[in-house]
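Narrative of accomplishments. A recurring question from our advisory board has been how the design workflow behaves on a single, concrete structure rather than in aggregate. To address it, we present the structure tokens for one chain from the evaluation set, followed by the sequence designed for it. No filtering or post-editing was applied between the two.
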């Protein structure tokens, strides 16, 4: 694993842990998501089950911004936006 990807993984782990501790509702929902790097998307996305993120975009964010992004994507899962939009 290269250094840049390792930093992104550490930032995601820190944000995920912070969500579990500070906002358990969103954090618990996030724990059920597999998070996968996908450089074809500009920021982040969900298919209603798992989360996908652009690692370069994540690297550019502050810790609080990553937490917000993860909570936002989990919100799509929580409100079943993908299923409703078909």
């Amino acid at each position: 694993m290269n250094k840049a990807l390792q930093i992104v993984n550490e930032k995601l782990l820190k944000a995920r842990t912070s969500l579990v501790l500070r906002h358990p509702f969103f954090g618990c929902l996030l724990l059920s998501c597999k998070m996968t790097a996908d450089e074809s998307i500009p920021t982040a996305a969900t298919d209603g089950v798992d989360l996908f993120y652009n690692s370069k975009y994540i690297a550019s964010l502050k810790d609080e911004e990553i937490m917000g992004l993860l909570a936002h994507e989990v919100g799509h899962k929580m409100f079943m936006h993908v299923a409703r939009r078909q």
